Amino acid sequence: MTVMPATEPSTPRRTAVRRHYLMCRPEHFAVTYAINPWMDPAAGADAGRAVEQWEALRAAYLSLGHEVSLIDPIEGLPDMVFAANGALVVGGRAYGAKFTFPERAAEGPAYADWLRKNGFPDVLLPAHTNEGEGDFLTLDHVILAGTGFRTDIAAHQEAQEFLGRPVVTLRLVDPRFYHLDTALFPLGGDNVAYFPGAFSPGSRAVLERLFPDAVLAGEADAAVLGLNAVCDGRNVVVNTEAAGLIGTLRDRGYEPVPVDLSELRKAGGGPKCCTLELRP
Ligand code: ARG
Prior knowledge:
Largest sheet: 3 strands, mixed
CATH architecture: 5-stranded Propeller
Structural class: alpha/beta
Low-confidence stretches: none
Bound molecules: arginine
GO molecular function: transferase activity
Number of strands: 15
Oligomer: single chain
Organism: Actinomadura physcomitrii
Strand content: 15-25%
Mean pLDDT: 96
Helix content: 10-25%
CATH class: Alpha Beta
Protein name: Amidinotransferase
Shape: globular
């Protein structure tokens, strides 16, 4: 008979997978209009400070061994730094964005153009309103898709048909969490972390069924955009203010990489918003 030594229940070893990200330096960042509750044009924002914080985010990705490509910022598009909204790229195909608000409309074609010229010729210009990876989060077997504030359900179907991946609709109900990526992030390919209060009762039940082992975040962590995080399977680049979530992630065997993006949060964005993953 083998006697197992009495030890603490061990946390699984987490493995990082190298990623390719597209980012946009916030040279023209500003808060000049309000299209979500985080934005206050009267208070404004400091582009210089935003660039410094963004550079630290980029440096964090590079130090983790990821590849970072850059798209040129365009004057007059202050939210273009939020690259996640520019498209959804899966299996080498790019499902383009069609923005909800006219203030950001020109970003859709700009990102589509960059993708076409940089190794992703297969770009679908969408018929339906959708804000790219802001509302589409890709796991191994499913793409989770948000609706309620920005992205139309019809776009969920359009993306499923184009990408050939199952898309599961989740309904967002709290205007502070207007994109799916403000309330949930994938932990590798088969699990997620999320703030349940951002979702309708039915969508919460869906998440419980799909991810019984999910990391649940509380209101305080969600309110600093802690769920707007980027995980490579092991490391989690996350807003430094999300102290509770950072502790939980560590307990679950992940390696939190805290970043300060407080200036970009004035536009309602965090690390994930600044990051579009390019999946070959
Ligand atoms: N000000 C931008 C907007 O409201 C922020 C976008 C944040 N991006 C994101 N992926 N959640 O559209």
